[in-house]
Amino acid sequence: MTRPDLMPLAEAERAELLALLRGLTAAQWQAPSLCSRWSVQDVATHIVSYDELSKPALVGTFIRGGGRFARVNEVALHRYRSLATDDVLDLLARHLRPSGLPAALGGGIALTDGTIHHQDIRRALELPRTIPHERLVPVLDFALGAPTLPAKKNATGLRLTATDISWTSGTGAEVRGPGESLLMALAGRPHSLDELSGPGLPTLRTRVT
User: Fold this and answer.
1) CATH numeric code, 133-208
2) How do residues 35-74 score in pLDDT, each as one tens digit?
3) Listed residue (134, 200, 190) closest to 167, CA to CA
4) Which of 38, 163, 173, 192 has its CA 20 to 30 A from that of 63?
5) What is the pTM of this model?
6) Cα separation of 169 and 161, whole Å?
7) Are the C-beta atoms of residues 157 and 174 closer than 8 Å to each other?
8) Non-local CB neighbours of 140 within 8 Å, separated by 6+ positions
9) What three-state secondary structure class fits 197?
10) In 3D, which of 191, 168, 194, 190 has the Cα closest to residue 179?
11) What is the DSSP code (8-state) at residue 39?
């Protein structure tokens, strides 16, 4: 089966994020994101923190992180902790086209990780947007199989129905709502649960919270 080329969508997502970041104040850069213990700047940096890692450096990062994704992410991010916000903007601008690990699987890793973290920033700063449907649908599909996300576990035994785009997945008690809200809930963000409804919501809420 041919894997779809998601690289153009990943580039578009990063470009939209860059445009947002360029307009943030110093206080917004240092504000908490939806990611535990990470500021907006931390999340923005994390999105491209794997792009410059060679294969040996990537292996070393996973070893130092003990193979635990949260810790591995911290190790990768640590290399960029001293960057000023302008340096983060420059880093992202140089990597609008994903490379390294994020470019794997047709750019699906970069697209999915970038979209979720983009929303981690926007939701925390109360700067909503409408994710283009042509990006949101493949992100929802990809998230359900991503080993770094709890989406597959959270979705087990549930029928997920997006009310604003043509997307459904699974069988069982239904959870319905905007596609972006479903995505964030599946990714483990309880912030979006109140935007969803359906008989399967109590089950999803228990898993996410």
Assistant:
1) 3.30.1050
2) 989 999 999 999 999 999 999 999 999 999 998 888 999 9
3) 134
4) 38
5) 0.94
6) 7
7) no
8) 162, 167, 169, 179, 182, 183, 186
9) strand
10) 168
11) B
